[in-house]
Amino acid sequence: MNSKDGYQWTEKGGLTQGVPSIGLIQPPSNITEESTVYDVIIVGAGYTALTAARDATTSGLKVLLLEARDRIGGRSWSSNIGGYPFEMGGTWVNWGQAHVWREISRYNMRKELEISQEHSYGVNHFSLFTAAGKKTDLSHEEEDRIMISALHKFINVDGALGRKIMPFPHDETYKPDVLPIDRLTAADRLSQIEGELSPQEYGCLKGWLLLCSGSTLETMSFYEFLHLWALSGYSYEGCIEYLVKYKFRGGQSSFAIKFWNEALSTNRLSYNFNCPIASIKDSNNSVEVTSIDGRIYKGSRVISTIPLNVLSTIKFDPPIDPSKTRATNTGHLNQCVKVHAEVSNKDLRSWSSIDPSSKLLYAFGDGTTPAGNTHIVAFGANETHLDPEKDINATKKILTDLTDMNIERVVFHNWSSDPYAKGAWFFPGKEFVTSYLEALRARHGNVFFASSDWAVGWRSFIDGAIEEGTRAARDVLLDLRSGPRQY
Amino acid sequence: MNSKDGYQWTEKGGLTQGVPSIGLIQPPSNITEESTVYDVIIVGAGYTALTAARDATTSGLKVLLLEARDRIGGRSWSSNIGGYPFEMGGTWVNWGQAHVWREISRYNMRKELEISQEHSYGVNHFSLFTAAGKKTDLSHEEEDRIMISALHKFINVDGALGRKIMPFPHDETYKPDVLPIDRLTAADRLSQIEGELSPQEYGCLKGWLLLCSGSTLETMSFYEFLHLWALSGYSYEGCIEYLVKYKFRGGQSSFAIKFWNEALSTNRLSYNFNCPIASIKDSNNSVEVTSIDGRIYKGSRVISTIPLNVLSTIKFDPPIDPSKTRATNTGHLNQCVKVHAEVSNKDLRSWSSIDPSSKLLYAFGDGTTPAGNTHIVAFGANETHLDPEKDINATKKILTDLTDMNIERVVFHNWSSDPYAKGAWFFPGKEFVTSYLEALRARHGNVFFASSDWAVGWRSFIDGAIEEGTRAARDVLLDLRSGPRQY
């Protein structure tokens, strides 16, 4: 069945809203008693919420999950079309990402991964645009060489490619002299190495930075990029392996549903989808969560997994503290656009491109569909923002400007216009991380806040979401002082 | 208080058995009702057992843990002497090891790590012995260069340093052409590259291989070393970071006790220490575990975390299958000796040595004690095996032969003579992994087997132990078909 989320275009069907997903939950609610007071109400159904719901229910708590959408997964979900999953948001995972890998291992899904970019089929080259329309075709080995050279110049603030200044990426301020770096944007750092980059290096680097941040060079935090680099083992090879290489053969929703089913199997999970939240009122002994449609739900504790960019739309009583308010008013920058194209050009499987002046600045062959077609994935950032559904023909033209392709299908989710996301994965401006992350993690009375947006490690990744869901469930359990409750 | 495990020597006290540990459990039992039938009896108290006990109790199961020793931790525990932890077995952890890092993060211990080898104090060199008594002092940079050159020659069976033949270290037979490699010992592989290694390269490589395997070149599996290499990101730098760099400031027992306390807090954990097991009898509806002292304990299921090398001492009724029997009779090879020395030579903090002809073939400065002394850790393998307690003066002489040092204290645990370990961490001979691991993981009626010795990923590591404990608890929970039980 179709979720209301996402868009699909085909020649025959035209542009339609809503795509099929195994993450759709039907019926959307299992609530029978309106008056129940739950141990904990979890707001959201992304990986943070799913992890918290699973950990809380399996530990004996009575949980209500409220979700604005009709599906689980939040900013990570897949649409399975004709037996092939298109990843609408968060996609890639790696065994070096502790929280997500622990779950992949625990759900025995280790063997359900496949490789996105395979450089061994057909057109095996990389198209680099150093100016609009100025294209050079290079080998992937040349791509790697240029990218590594550029990234090393960009990142090397300490003569040790970041290892010296950020030796523990999960304890990132271990060396306090890393803190002033958060005053730099990527553009600031680029100005420090002005003249050192060749035009090709600049083009590759800009493409990579905007891919990572979904924003602009002038606004994105250099510090956050350094953190990502440190997490990835301080190397471009590591970045590729951690960020864009391994994905689920069955799609993200095949993973998310495992958490959901385990939580459900406890018979302690109540839920209501299509239920956006208006306000959260904490009266010390219990918390009332009021939905947009005016229903009131009661719990001893609340875990809000509402994303940073959406949090300011919720009314809190008592109001959240000034620091959290400033953080939610500031928000993060990532307005990444991700567009999938199924193209009949079988030889594009090993193609990739970077065109920093295009609205889809980074693209590569991501798989082969059951029809034998190539699946191309393309990303845009906020510098020249694209809303693909507003003009699907223009979107297709942007793709075919990158290289010749015969497009049979386009699939995407517009995260920027999505009221429950207001952007893609977390990527901050300068000074956000060092100013606000601690405040965002803090509890507010009986309300706990958890989101990948302020995770310690793989912030903005599925791994960070699971880290945060784990933390929140444990904090609530400890807070309720019962260990698991006796029923 | 002192555990009965471990040894300590000082000038004043001489050699004494038993050292203090916060992993000692007092009183050793909390059993009040002898007749209880538990949901699951867990045999052992290492990380596998601790993880299984925690996951099972927090999920609502009634658990009995039986342990032969007087302490938790199994082959990973620390003795805290004068405020300084000496790691008696498994020590190092890394954030790229998913299972252990998920727990470190969950228990909020991210900031409790410190760095073992620091190359910035005093005598900053590496002593390499290429023949008995033939010592050359090199810089650590030279050490790295020689080691990398030697390891690359040794590992490079596929022209891609192992990446091609074992691209998924957590799905190691993803490329079936990796399987024939398990017919090689390290010596077999060395004969394939005969003439390619300089004497210094050979010395470094032999030291590293015996450090990793605790066995001999003629018996250790090349395949298992390749797997370890793949897990470490296919690089020597990765090996250092994953295998010997980051440890707990408070010692391993400060971590193990977190699992224990969480399990205890559920009030569903019964336990009996000093309780070695004689037999396990499965009568379909329940399992009887009989201790050496003749007491019988009953459970619906049993999780045995007994190490591979000890499993053959337990009588199973009905007998375990022939494949498991062959595996337990074969056992693994690792007879590593690990000896700590507290030395008054402050300038040895950044010293290291490799002497393949010494009974302590790999040594390095591992920390600074509260007295300002240097803590040296040294390892021996099975080629020229050392039992330190049999002649402590000879042991001290072996240390001082490596470099001048004034020894004030020696601390160690003899894992080879320990009846509940019969060796150190798992390291197999050729053809063991491809022949027996699947069989070792299989359940036997109501008895489940879990041990780091046959983990999928970081086999033989703390990470692998937690992986296995997680798997076993989940398998038992699913098997009892209840999800968490309602009490």
TrEMBL record, chains A, B:
Leader sequence segment: none
All copies of domain Amine oxidase, residue ranges: 50-477
Presence of the UniProt keyword Amino-acid biosynthesis in the record: no
Binding of substrate, residues: F379
UniProt keywords, alphabetically: FAD, Flavoprotein, Oxidoreductase
Coiled coil (residue ranges): none
Cofactor(s) named in the record: FAD
Pfam families xref list: Amino_oxidase
Molecular functions per Gene Ontology: monoamine oxidase activity
Catalytic function, reaction form: a secondary aliphatic amine + O2 + H2O = a primary amine + an aldehyde + H2O2
EC numbers for this chain: 1.4.3.-
Residues binding FAD, per UniProt: T48, E67, A68
Family: Belongs to the flavin monoamine oxidase family.
Protein name: Amine oxidase
Native organism: Phialocephala subalpina
